[in-house]
Amino acid sequence: MLYQSDTLTLMQLDDGIAEIRFGNLGSVNKFDRCTLVSFQQALAILQDLSGLTGLILSHNKKDFMVGADINEFLPKFALPDEELSQWLHQANQIFNSLEDLPVPTISVMGGFVLGGGCECVLATDFRISDSSLKIGLPEVKLGIMPGFGGSVRLPRLIGADNALMWITTGKHHHAEQALKDGVLDAIVATEHRHQAAVKMLQQANQLGWQQRRAAKKAPLCLSNIEATMCFSTANAMVAAKAGPHYPAPVTAVTAMQQAAGMSRDEALAIENQHFVRLAKTHVARALVGIYLNDQQLKQSAKKLTANSQKVQSLAVLGAGIMGGGIAYQGASKRLNVVMKDIQPDALHLGMSEANTLLNKQIKRGKLTSHQLGETLARITPSLNYDSVKNAQVVIEAVVENPKIKAQVLAETEQHIGVDSVLVSNTSTIPIGLLAQSLARPEQFCGMHFFNPVHRMPLVEVIRGPETSQACVEQVVALAIQLGKSPVVVNDCPGFFVNRVLFPYFFGFARLIAAGVDFAHIDRVMEQQFGWPMGPAYLLDVVGIDTAHHAGAVMAQGYPTRMQPQQDSCIDLFFEAQKYGQKSGEGFYQYHLDSKGRPAKKRSDAAYELLAQHFSSDASLSDDTIIDYLMVPLVNEVLHCLDEQIVASAAEADIALVYGLGFPPFRGGPIAWLQHIGLDQFIAKADALAALGPLYQVPASLRERAASGTDFY
């Protein structure tokens, strides 16, 4: 033993080979301050060690290194530019000292090797892993770029084109792809990795370790023409894909292009400059905030479900698109699912939905035909209640009608065990109202999935007035099993996500009434604010009939703020039976494209219908259009926080990013509010106060602004 700390051990092996084994006392290995310091000290010992012939980097946990500790490093982003740059330089000196050791080096890996962990192994001469490897540089997903040499070493190792793809997408890659691209030198069975590493070090001269190292420290081998073509093409493609709101991928391309003709140390200085610039952007703060909120959500759910049993048997009532989607999700996560309906045609639709989703996985190469068959076999379609009697959890997913839901729930309760949990997949109907029909309301809660179920990560778990804590814990545990991010909210009409969405829709209706073109509104909210769909398009996708009925529920629940205006555009389209995508026409017309997906185009009929009721000559600024929509949404989020419908600003932000597609680069509604400033937001709201109660900011916000108290 040459050196030991709480994060790693340095050992002397046979034949002059040394080994640094990462082993954090915590649950995972990560490059926190202690690990970096220990790593630096271990490398300093090796630099003075006589008889050293090679170095192995290894790990004693499932994952080699999950990356940097973002909780610890985030405060450094707030440092003055010079101090942040100096910190990065010092960290890079550690990795340089690894790369500059006078002996060959090899990394032995498995599990996740991400971010700083990936940049660390790029500094060694060889890399081997077992088949469990997942390696990558995900920094652009946090609004930054590699800062520990990743943008310098990776293109010199695997070529500029491959490196650009790795860095600008932020994806992690499995062992086979890493081997194909040249990041890995070999894939070895777990039990043979160490032996293989020793053998490679012994053969390092034949394998050309010094030539490999020299190539990583030299300029890229690209002619001027090759460099221009490579980086110009990448810039255009990345800019088109990332869009104007996400500067990190384009900045990474620029940094790599500027550094292409430089040596390692010169190139690292370029990377340093661009990293510092990105770390200071609101986008980086927002995306890091989402990551931290997500981690907080996962930790809360883990604590909440510490004593919960895993669900083995699940039943879904209702075999429509939602029911079929939930059944598919359960079966794909290896749960046995009964899908019950009263109509054979509905069961066929539900099974077809599951089969369609599975076939898409096959086309993407993520599933085999055999696995498709196994997954479908886990779904049992049924027409009778006998099939659900042994289910641990039963999810009702029938039509969004309180009378029908209450009837189905009451019938189901009579056929399941007293310990079984009954759940309603409702989007707006209060759980307390539905519970009135039940004998065991303590075993009942809400579980609001978002459509499409297989793609949307959020599930709202709604605690009713009489729901037991054990029931909530069981449903949260189920949501995690289904691969979802559960947010526990308290009961009210619309719960959290839909409750704050409808003021946004009502703001849209006021813009239409004022004579603003809905297509222009959509362009502003998509291209400038960053929503994936503008409000008119979103209404068409949700279904204008669904929005009409849900709006009535919201108006009943919040009569002061959410009474719809006379001749609301939502009501007009509903009465004209223009329901959006499901009917082929709403604000837009829809036809199936070459891939069978609904594509929208201009609808003259929509403009004619609106012209019968509203003028169309309004000229509002784009900023005013944004305020019409976002002020009511943010105000309602604040009301939900005041009423403790949602527990924290962090959960509110993550719920709207995951559930509605709130622009991630803005961090969520509260992060956006805090970024523009509480006083500025209050001024925006006050300027629109004549529009009604939806635009009145809660008193709590004025108090917070006066005291200078932030939400985060």
From TrEMBL:
CDD domains assigned to the protein according to its UniProt record, in alphabetical order: crotonase-like
Check the record and name the InterPro entries matching this protein: 3-OHacyl-CoA_DH_CS, 3-OHacyl-CoA_DH_NAD-bd, 3HC_DH_C, 6-PGluconate_DH-like_C_sf, ClpP/crotonase-like_dom_sf, Enoyl-CoA_hydra/iso, FA_oxidation_alpha_subunit, FadB
Protein encoded by which gene: fadB
GO cellular component annotations of the record: fatty acid beta-oxidation multienzyme complex
What is the name attached to this protein's record?
enoyl-CoA hydratase
**Which species expresses this protein natively?**
Motilimonas pumila
* Enzyme category, top tier: lyase
- NCBIfam families reported for this sequence: FadB, PRK11730.1
Q: In which pathway does it act?
A: Lipid metabolism; fatty acid beta-oxidation
Pinpoint the 3-hydroxyacyl-CoA dehydrogenase C-terminal domain residues: 494-590
